[in-house]
Specification:
Layout: H1 2-21, H2 37-45, E1 55-67, E2 70-77, E3 80-87, H3 88-91, H4 93-100, E4 107-116, E5 122-133, H5 149-154, H6 156-162, H7 164-186, E6 190-191, E7 197-198, E8 210-213, E9 218-222, H8 227-235, E10 240-248, E11 260-269, H9 273-292, E12 296-299, E13 302-305, E14 311-314, H10 315-323, H11 327-333, H12 335-344, H13 355-367, E15 375-381, E16 390-391, E17 394-405, E18 408-415, H14 420-437, H15 447-454, E19 460-466, H16 467-475
């Protein structure tokens, strides 16, 4: 196969050489097009294009059909496909011969009037054409689509060229983000940007990536969340803020995990997690309608209904019903009690697992796989969420929820802890777990953040949404790599 492709490339390089010899630049600087393929088709179908109307469109050659003195080309641009008809009589023998020298994958511009063929296809009657980029490599599978999954991810440009479904997925991703922005902007939120490089990365349970700043001669971390900086802005008087951006976590790669991914985080002063739940339901359902035209979403063999309200399920009840363990009672008696109860169920644990990890293990093992329709798990043990506010009637439970669908978490939120003394005590416990259990994911003590809180932070509702996972749900994708243009992969 490699040798055959080398021959094809050499043949195409020879065509490039001959074009240059004839004074034709196979890679010109620009081309002025008047319409996209979609715009030209709409112009014709509206009846506004007469015989004298001339359009110029450009795109990649995806099909070539030569029939004596006539040739048909299919050109694809970012908006879709347009057929072009090249006639030897109109172009002249020399120019028509150039058309016959084109290869699949070449990018060309064509100029001419519009007409409709006997089969009803809107077509450009080409009076002139320009080679814009000569393709030296053949298109994958002769335009029948790139099927090698690893190659699709490593050479995403080939995937986009050959697979309409891939293009549709990433168009849906873009529209999802745009719809979320419109929703939040319409509710009075302002979009902000916070540092990617941080002296201490916090705001989530995660391992961190470390890098080094040469000029400052100092190690820095890639952010694992935007939370702590966004809450500083709440302290500063911005009542509603959000950020959509890349997050970096030094974790494994799976169908649901990529070391860098995109999140939305929003914070609203004077709100709590109940307000945030209502906002998330509305935002996701409105976004689904905007992107898909419906809140009924197909995922595999399932139909997910994102119409509010979603089911609300207390975490304590969910775990107890699933496996019979009352984690709240066990933790109250001591973390070792919870560990023993879990081991009695046959779960493999070790002494390095902190109380937060134990609860996470329970939830991921017994509860998450059962959450198919959009569901809120609410009210988590304080050990799992050091940045959340406890319930007024139960200091062992925080006002937190996670949103799930098809067993996959796609959002996390809570009423934010705004008591600086309690926050400092929580950070101290996290640091102790880091030493006692070797828990690299535990929060670090954030002195600067505590100082910001000491100036007074209003009651606040915070939200985090995994954009990649939400797009997976909207586009019926089973792997996160299908919705990230350039996912991280193992070395080839």
């Amino acid at each position: 196969m490699g040798k055959r492709l080398d021959i094809i490339t050499q043949q195409r390089l020879e065509k490039v050489r001959k074009l240059r010899e004839r004074g034709i630049n196979p890679y010109p600087n620009s081309y002025r097009r008047t319409h996209t393929a979609q715009d030209a088709r709409a112009l014709f179908e509206s009846g506004a294009a007469g015989p004298e109307t001339v359009v110029s469109i450009a795109g990649r050659v995806t099909a070539l059909r030569h029939m004596g003195k006539a040739s048909f080309l299919d050109l694809r641009d970012g908006s879709g496909k347009m057929q072009a008809y090249c006639n030897k009589t109109q172009l002249g023998p020399e120019r028509h011969e150039l058309v016959k020298e084109l290869d699949l994958g070449d990018i060309v511009g064509v100029k001419g009037s519009l007409f409709q063929t006997k089969t009803g296809e809107v077509t450009v009657d080409v009076s002139d054409f320009t080679i814009l980029a000569k393709s030296l490599e053949p298109l994958p599978e002769k335009w029948h689509g790139l099927v090698d999954v690893e190659k699709r991810y490593r050479q995403r440009y080939l995937d986009l060229i050959s697979n309409q479904a891939a293009r549709d997925t990433f168009l849906a991703r873009s529209r999802t983000i745009s719809a979320i922005r419109r929703f939040l902007d319409g509710r009075g939120f302002i979009e902000v940007e916070t540092p990617v490089l941080q002296q201490m990365a916090g705001g989530a349970r995660a391992r961190r990536f470390i890098t080094h700043h040469q000029a400052l001669d100092r190690d820095l971390y890639l952010r694992i969340a935007t939370e702590l900086y966004l809450k500083r802005l709440i302290v500063g008087g911005f009542d509603k803020v959000y950020e959509i951006g890349r997050i970096f976590r030094n974790e494994g790669i799976s169908t649901r995990h990529n070391p860098e991914f995109t999140t939305l985080e929003s914070y609203e002063a004077y709100a709590d997690y109940n307000d945030v739940m209502a906002m998330l339901e509305e935002m996701v359902s409105q976004t689904a309608r905007s992107v898909l035209g419906t809140t009924q979403v197909t995922y595999g063999d399932l139909t997910l209904d994102f119409t509010p309200p979603w089911k609300r399920l207390p975490l304590r009840d969910a775990v107890a019903q699933a496996c019979g363990i009352d984690f709240e009672a066990e933790l109250a008696a001591g973390p070792e009690n919870l560990r023993s109860a879990m081991q009695a169920k046959g779960l493999q644990l070790d002494e390095t697992m902190s109380p937060a990890y134990l609860v996470d293990k329970l939830v991921s093992t017994y509860v998450e796989p059962t959450l198919i329709q959009p569901t809120f798990l609410i009210d988590y043990p304080v050990e799992t969420t050091p940045l959340a506010k406890t319930k007024s009637d139960n200091k062992s439970i925080v006002e937190r929820f996670e949103a799930f669908a098809v067993g996959m978490e796609f959002a996390n939120a809570f009423t934010e802890l705004n008591d600086p003394e309690e926050q400092a005590a929580r950070f101290t416990i996290q640091e102790e777990w880091r030493k006692q259990f070797g828990d690299e994911e535990a929060e670090q003590y954030q002195e600067d953040f505590i100082q910001a809180m000491e100036y007074g932070m209003p009651p606040t509702g915070g939200l985090g949404v995994g954009i990649d996972r939400l797009v997976m749900l909207f586009t019926n994708q089973q792997s996160i790599r299908e919705v990230i243009l350039f996912p991280q992969l193992k070395t080839a």
